[in-house]
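Table S5 (text form). Sequence records supplied for joint modeling of the three-component complex.
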Amino acid sequence: MEHAAAHAATELTPLVTHAASYLWLIPFFPLVGAFINATLGVRLQRRFGKGLVHSIGIGAMAMSFIVACAAFVQLVGLDSEHRFLQDTLWNIFTAGKVTVDLGFALDPLSMMMTLIITFIGMLIHVFSTGYMADEPSYWRFFAYLNLFVFSMLLLVMGDNFVLMFFGWEGVGLCSYLLIAFWYTDPQKAAAGMKAFVTNRFGDFGFILGLFLLFWALGGVWQKAPDGKLTYVENDPHAETALAAAHGEGHDAEYVKIGPTLNFRELRDQVVIKSTGVAEKLKSQKMFGFGLLAMVGILFFVGAMGKSAQLPLHVWLPDAMAGPTPVSALIHAATMVTAGVYMVARLNFIFALSPTAMGWVAFIGALTALFAASIGFFQYDIKKVLAYSTVSQLGFMFIGVGVGAYWAGAYHLLTHAFFKATLFLGSGSVILGCHHEQDMRKMGGLGKLMPVTKWTYLIACWAIAGFPWASGFYSKDEILWKAFSQEGMAFLGIAAPHLGQIIYFMGIVAATGTSFYMFRSYYMTFTGEYRGGHGHADGHADGHGHGNDAHGHAHVPHESPRSITLVLVALATGAVLAAVIGVPMAWTGHAPLLEQWLEPTLPAVVLFAEYAHSTEFLFQFIGVSAGVIGWAFARALYKDNKSQVPAQLLSRWKGAWNVVYNKYFVDELYQATVLRGSVGLARGLSWFDKHIIDAMVNLAGAVTRIFANIDGAIDRYLVDGAVNFVAGATLSAGRVMRRVQTGRIQTYLYGALVGAIALVLFNFLIR
Amino acid sequence: MQTQFVIFIFLALATLVGAASVALSRNIFWSAMGLLSSLVGVGGMYVLLSADFIAITQVLVYIGGVLVLIIFAVMLTSHIQDINVSNRSMGLAGGFLVFWVVATLLCFVALWTPWKITVVPPVEGTTAAIGNGLLGKWLLPFEIASVVLVATMVGAIVVARKEVKE
Amino acid sequence: MALTLNHFLVIGALLFGFGLLAVVTRRNAVAVLMGIELILNAANLNLVAFGRYVAGNISGQVFSLFVIVLAAAEAAVGLAIILAIYQMLRNIDTSQATTLKE
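The corresponding structure-token record, covering 1034 residues in total, follows.
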């Protein structure tokens, strides 16, 4: 809490950037890998085997990781205030006030994300070599994975909204491609579509929020009140004055004020008090609602879609139709965290609006509770993990909602590790049980798959929030900050106790988390193996990994090295990540991660002050919640001996049914939104067919009528006239021809008559 | 004078009846006879006009030459068998109209114009006078007429001969 | 009654008319020629009459002499042509000799 005071003391300055012209390599390598595998992958796989394909994919990831490490080293070497690497390649387009550059920027937040993405991404690539070993479209999988990493890197490294949105959409696309990887199964294809469409709903909100923000920043370039930090066009004196005022020869000497899409410029405008932009934004209202609240809520709608918060969470459980590495990478570690990243990136905007903060935190808490409850009764191990992800994302949003941005980001980091471990562990289990995902058919795998069991257990320990595993520190920090946040508002009404309400919801959700995670652990790894007889999977291809000594006995065994090593690495990470987040109350210093992220999170958020003892109390409550959950799980599910679950189920069948069916949310959407859309489409189709086509046909018919009239006119009038002339000439000729009798006497007649006439004429005239 | 007048009437009758026969007769032979009568009549009238040489020439050339030629032609070309309908005519109505108009016109002109009648008596011995004139005053027409006659002879022969087949 | 110019002129006129009638109406080509002779004769008559009653010299007669000569020549040629046509068409009907017809 001392941080708040520290922040108020120092005057914030524009961000100073350092040029790092190699940053573009980080997204470039996965893009190249994706391109090679996509275009040549089939042939390479056919000629050189799968080894070359995955080498390209993993190689690209490795190179990207190395360059990211190099950037990290450079960043660490800089002053904590000046940690900003910028690499602008070129200007994509400029139209009026809108300037979009192809530029990459690494500040501590995006550096953290980049390391997570490249490191965990690389590990998951390695895992996939074992898991997807007997997949014929091996090359396609790796191409998609690389493409996904490229898009995700664009998202976090892009220095402006447009690039971020490009990546945002790109990960949505790759998520669709990867979920529907086995697209020949209509259910899986439908799951992919569901993910994409739900994401689009979110993206719509994101774009609206962006437009609103852009517009709100003002329509004209304006001078700052004190004239000191201003961008003034064509005023050389102002420029030199600014340069003198700063003295250091780095890039940022002035602050752009006005509509911009660049994050750094936006941050500078809003954060630096003397520009007056923050005050202006806070006071702006649209239709009676605070503009910033709307902006925040709309951006959060985008996050809702991407990060599967209520009510757009429906795609994530269905997304488990994709291969397990995909679930691990996309739906645990990276894509779903894009929403959290976005809110953390725009922390200075959210912090200005208590309504937006309250909204984000409340929805996050609601989602956490909701998803945890569903996870109680699922039988598919991946579904349990999916709902767990939704729930944990809710926790992350609680964190960034109440203003504990670094805590939300920290939970993102820890969640990435332990959730990836859990997913990959479940993948190992599924592989061992011959693609069986129902936990009721598992059991007793602890003896058969020891490495998997231990890594899974460590991850469960972490997620439940027990001390010395990273999950404890992150979750604890979030809930603690939620409790101490009294400045939030709910839909414009100040709600000082909203934070406490959220805290209680979070504690209940944490209990639930512990319960269902250990439930899944006990059901899977303890007791006797219940599978192996008559599970109807017609997988004729069997296992691809080499040590298949038991051909027909369906006894599961440990997975190959490529899988187990990755599991160990990730589990270790889950534990070690604790180191950077040890709270101040324990060590007297601010946690390492908080210090690291501090420059990027300049939002000034006030928390209520409490003593350290209160903090220890809350930590104890958090641990107790975890223990309670574990105890229940152990009692009900260890070794599957207890009859209590069955008894409870039969007694509360109705309630169980509702929760088991995910509160019928999908059915509700089917009845309202989907039916509505389809009905609208049908209506429009009718309109098109009967009205528009009728108009077109009418136009056609009218044209035809006119053509017929023209034809008739041509045939009867014009041709008639011509024919008439011809006919008249013919008749006249026929008559005239009779003069040519050929008889001399006739001609003589003529001459005579003429002569007589002449004579008579002469005679009579005289 | 009375006798001249009566003779004139006879001659006129012969001429006109003959001419009418030429124009209107159905039989070509009678037309030819009519022509004869006409020519004779005209010859007679020449005598009444004191043109004795012309009268004789008329008889000799016209009747003795032209008429004979015509009768040759008639004999050669008309089918004597059906001599009754060998000389048809066409468009008599229009012809009559023309006849009446022309005749009337000419008569009218002849009778209405105040001719200057001379009192000089007619020339005696027209033959000598004509002979002198032909070789004196009218030598050129005389020569040209002879050329024309030669041309006519040659032409008639060329036109009427049968094609010699080689 | 004394014979005057008018008598002869009338006769000439009528003769001319008849000759014209024959030329215009007759179908037999020889008859047409006969008509032409009549016309020429009529002209001759007029010439001689005028020579006697108006001119007072023999110019009329000389003129008519030449007319007679030429009439004979023309009759000869005409009849030669008629014979040639007869050889070709086997009859001398003017309404048959119409190759100039349209």
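Note: Chain C has one domain: 9-91.
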